[in-house]
Amino acid sequence: MEINILNEERLGTLDALLSNAYCRSQMFLSKQMAQLRPELTMPMFSEITHRFQTARAEVRVSLLQCLLPWLENMELVAASVPPATPLSYIMFQTKGFVMQL
Protein backbone atom coordinates (compact mmCIF):
# COMPACT_ATOMS: atom_id res chain seq x y z
CA MET A 1 0.00 0.00 0.00
CA GLU A 2 2.82 2.42 0.91
CA ILE A 3 4.57 1.61 -2.37
CA ASN A 4 1.44 2.54 -4.34
CA ILE A 5 1.23 5.88 -2.51
CA LEU A 6 4.89 6.61 -3.22
CA ASN A 7 4.42 5.69 -6.88
CA GLU A 8 1.37 7.94 -7.15
CA GLU A 9 3.30 10.83 -5.57
CA ARG A 10 6.16 10.31 -8.02
CA LEU A 11 3.75 10.20 -10.96
CA GLY A 12 2.05 13.36 -9.71
CA THR A 13 5.41 15.09 -9.45
CA LEU A 14 6.43 13.79 -12.87
CA ASP A 15 3.15 15.00 -14.38
CA ALA A 16 3.72 18.45 -12.90
CA LEU A 17 7.30 18.57 -14.22
CA LEU A 18 6.30 17.39 -17.68
CA SER A 19 3.39 19.79 -17.79
CA ASN A 20 5.67 22.69 -16.89
CA ALA A 21 8.32 21.63 -19.43
CA TYR A 22 5.68 21.13 -22.13
CA CYS A 23 4.25 24.60 -21.50
CA ARG A 24 7.72 26.16 -21.65
CA SER A 25 8.57 24.36 -24.88
CA GLN A 26 5.28 25.54 -26.43
CA MET A 27 6.11 29.13 -25.53
CA PHE A 28 9.66 28.75 -26.86
CA LEU A 29 8.43 27.25 -30.14
CA SER A 30 5.78 29.93 -30.49
CA LYS A 31 8.39 32.66 -30.00
CA GLN A 32 10.76 31.06 -32.50
CA MET A 33 8.02 30.59 -35.10
CA ALA A 34 6.79 34.17 -34.65
CA GLN A 35 10.31 35.43 -35.32
CA LEU A 36 11.12 33.07 -38.19
CA ARG A 37 7.72 33.00 -39.92
CA PRO A 38 6.01 36.37 -39.36
CA GLU A 39 3.79 35.73 -42.40
CA LEU A 40 1.94 33.14 -40.27
CA THR A 41 0.90 35.78 -37.72
CA MET A 42 -2.70 36.22 -38.83
CA PRO A 43 -3.42 32.48 -39.28
CA MET A 44 -1.91 31.76 -35.85
CA PHE A 45 -3.82 34.63 -34.25
CA SER A 46 -7.03 33.36 -35.81
CA GLU A 47 -6.45 29.77 -34.73
CA ILE A 48 -5.49 30.59 -31.15
CA THR A 49 -8.36 33.01 -30.61
CA HIS A 50 -10.81 30.53 -32.14
CA ARG A 51 -9.68 27.81 -29.72
CA PHE A 52 -9.65 30.27 -26.80
CA GLN A 53 -13.43 30.56 -26.92
CA THR A 54 -14.03 26.93 -25.91
CA ALA A 55 -10.87 26.25 -23.88
CA ARG A 56 -10.81 25.46 -20.17
CA ALA A 57 -9.42 28.18 -17.88
CA GLU A 58 -6.02 26.51 -17.41
CA VAL A 59 -5.66 26.03 -21.16
CA ARG A 60 -6.58 29.66 -21.82
CA VAL A 61 -3.50 30.75 -19.87
CA SER A 62 -1.27 28.64 -22.14
CA LEU A 63 -3.02 29.92 -25.25
CA LEU A 64 -2.45 33.53 -24.22
CA GLN A 65 1.20 32.80 -23.48
CA CYS A 66 1.63 31.27 -26.92
CA LEU A 67 -0.20 34.19 -28.55
CA LEU A 68 2.02 36.85 -27.00
CA PRO A 69 5.01 36.55 -29.39
CA TRP A 70 2.68 36.76 -32.39
CA LEU A 71 1.22 40.04 -31.14
CA GLU A 72 4.64 41.64 -31.56
CA ASN A 73 4.25 41.09 -35.32
CA MET A 74 0.93 42.89 -35.48
CA GLU A 75 0.21 46.54 -36.07
CA LEU A 76 -3.26 47.73 -35.17
CA VAL A 77 -4.60 50.53 -37.35
CA ALA A 78 -7.81 52.44 -36.72
CA ALA A 79 -9.27 54.40 -39.63
CA SER A 80 -10.93 56.89 -37.27
CA VAL A 81 -7.68 57.86 -35.52
CA PRO A 82 -5.54 60.51 -37.24
CA PRO A 83 -1.91 59.59 -37.89
CA ALA A 84 0.54 60.39 -35.11
CA THR A 85 2.72 63.46 -35.40
CA PRO A 86 5.59 64.66 -33.22
CA LEU A 87 3.25 67.33 -31.83
CA SER A 88 0.64 64.75 -30.77
CA TYR A 89 3.37 62.77 -29.01
CA ILE A 90 4.44 65.85 -27.03
CA MET A 91 0.84 66.73 -26.16
CA PHE A 92 0.14 63.23 -24.78
CA GLN A 93 3.39 63.16 -22.86
CA THR A 94 2.61 66.45 -21.11
CA LYS A 95 -0.83 65.16 -20.07
CA GLY A 96 0.78 62.29 -18.16
CA PHE A 97 0.37 59.62 -20.83
CA VAL A 98 3.40 57.57 -21.70
CA MET A 99 2.14 55.98 -24.90
CA GLN A 100 2.61 57.51 -28.32
CA LEU A 101 -0.38 57.49 -30.66
From TrEMBL:
GO biological process: cell morphogenesis; neuron projection development
Domain of life assignment: Eukaryota
One GO CC annotation: cell cortex
InterPro entries named in the record: Furry/Tao3/Mor2
PANTHER family in alphabetical order: FURRY-RELATED (PTHR12295), PROTEIN FURRY (PTHR12295:SF30)
Annotated protein name in UniProt: Uncharacterized protein
